[in-house]
Amino acid sequence: MTTKSQMRTYAKKRLDKERFYRYQASKKISLKIASLIAQHNPQSILFYLPMAHEVDLRPLMWALRPYKRIYVPFMEHDSFKMVPFALPFFRSKYAILQPKKSHRTVTKVDMAIVPILAFDKAYKRIGFGKGMYDRFFARLTTKPITIFVQTKRIESPHILTDAYDIRADYVVTAKDFLIL
pTM value? Predict the structure, then answer.
């Protein structure tokens, strides 16, 4: 694979095959994420509400909610803003679950858990190609501890990303735990 687009196509096909194992993978990954949270003790954490092929961390989010400020993305224009993790959820125009829009503006978060399709040799994110996470991270006042999650490790041995693509501090899969 020589382009991000080719890598996306490849990763989507591989992850579609992993849907059956998503529940087991999500439990294993949740334990690893909980360990990182205990180690770093962030007060505010950006999670995400999962799509069908993504790691489901909602049980961990609910468990942490009484003790931490938990945020999730709310799609807005070409990026998103962080809103508190709270019911009810609605589907965005991209069919992604999200809570109601909040008028609160949050520009700093201590830790961000980011879903990925794949990553490249530079440990940068290959996502769905909309650039929402890249634009969002560019607008933050400080860089959070960034953890990429995926059910199965899919990486390119080549650098496919651009300078503006976000880089991980950790990559967590059901079988792997990479510290970068």
Answer: 0.92
